[in-house]
Amino acid sequence: MDVFDRLKAATPADWRSYIDHDFVRQMGAGTLPQTAFRTYLVQDYLFLIQFARVYALATYKSRTLADMKAAQAGLAAIFDEMDLHVRLCDRWGLSPEDIEAAPEHQATIAYTRFVLDCGAAGDLLDLHVALAPCVIGYAEIGRNLAPNGIDALGDHPYREWIAEYAGDAYQAVAANARHHLDDLAARAMTERRFDELATLFGKASRLEADFWQMGLDANR
Ligand SMILES: Cc1ncc(C[n+]2csc(CCO)c2C)c(N)n1
Questions:
Q1: In what residue span(s) does the Thiaminase-2/PQQC domain sit (predicted)?
Q2: 47: buried, middle or exposed (CB in 10 Å: 19+, 13-18, 0-12)?
């Protein structure tokens, strides 16, 4: 079992609350109301701005070339995602400036500042464990929502979003993040530390679930 699987196995309810959230199920079924998706996407753009800061912090906390390159790969993946958000928001007549002017929702603030604080108060391993549900979870969600591949999605209303995370490029980003986590843990993790790291991982998964819920609540 790699470190990621161990963290998941230590926090099964938190993980399920995130991966199997109603928002994800409705998106997969194509029944998710557009208001919910749009609220999510605008907040997610604001979220990604803060996560770019997280990867800058990861560079700051790095001591090796490999760690710095991992941080750079995370930042590059964020810019690819933000391109998707800009494309989708453009169809609703929303420019990047419009989105950047939107107020951050509590769920956005709670999650992003939690991860930034894990990195500021802890070391690089704490930071990457707090990031793992986000980075690796979206790859799992993407695969779950495209069980027969991207082409089989046809004219699914959320095709572009699903294709982004189910696609080979993003799957490779997540696989590399997973290996990097193992590598970091081999250098910095003691068994005594594992429980603390699992607590961080569980909290981040719950904050992901709250983030989905924010999208659903916008439609009530
Ligand atoms: C709420 C929320 N959680 C996770 C992601 C996915 N994500 C965030 S940063 C990043 C790149 C890291 O390599 C990825 C894939 C998201 N967009 N929104």
A1: 15-217
A2: buried
Check if the beta carbon of residue 219 is closer than 8 Å to that of residue 33.
Answer: yes
AA letter at 127: L
Rounded CA gap, 38 and 125, in Å? 33
pLDDT digits (tens, 9 = 90+) for 48-101: 999 999 999 999 999 999 999 999 999 999 999 999 999 999 999 999 999 999
* Residue 44 Cα: closest atom of ligand 1: 18
**Which domains are delineated in the chain?**
51-217 (1.20.910.10)
Asked if 51 and 78 touch (Cβ cutoff 8 Å), the reply is yes
d(CA 101, CA 97): 6
Q: Is 78 in the pocket of ligand 1 (CB under 6 A)?
A: yes
Does the beta carbon of 138 lie inside 6 Å of ligand 1? Answer: yes
Where in the sequence numbering do the catalytic residues fall? 134, 208
Confirm whether the ipTM is greater than 0.95.
Answer: yes
The structure's pTM equals: 0.96
Cβ atoms within 10 Å of 117's Cβ, excluding its own: 13
As a whole number of angstroms, the distance between CA 98 and CA 113 comes to: 22
The C-alpha atoms of residue 204 and residue 64 are separated, in whole angstroms, by 26
Which atom of ligand 1 is least distant from the CA of 55? 12
End-to-end CA separation in angstroms for the chain = 41
Q: What atom of ligand 1 comes closest to residue 73's alpha carbon?
A: 13
